[in-house]
Write a structure and sequence with these properties.
Helices cover about 90% and strands about 0% of the residues. The chain has 1 helix and no strands. The radius of gyration is 37 Å and the shape is rod-shaped.
């Protein structure tokens, strides 16, 4: 083989290896972009769920407060029934 043939073979090998590297690099870039997109979606869902949990906790606190007030009212009514001479249920 002469120098031109060897040079052509080496150039072909360089072009092929360069295209393989570019292909794999693009696949990696696409995978990274896809993963970043998925992570962003997961974070948005997490933030929405945190908001829902905060609203639920607030509602639970309101209901517990109302329940406490109801117990006080029931106790007051039972005491009133007893002072009027009746028997509470």
């Amino acid at each position: 083989m002469d120098a031109a043939t060897i040079g052509a073979v080496l150039a072909l090998a360089g072009v092929l290896s360069g295209s393989v590297v570019a292909y794999l690099g693009k696949r990696g870039e696409n995978a990274t972009t896809r993963m970043n997109s998925e992570i962003d979606q997961i974070q948005e869902e997490r933030d929405g769920l945190r908001k829902q949990v905060a609203e639920r906790d607030s509602r639970i606190a309101e209901l517990l407060k109302q329940q406490g007030e109801d117990y006080v009212t029931i106790a007051r009514l039972r005491a009133h029934i007893i002072t009027m001479g009746g028997e509470p249920p």
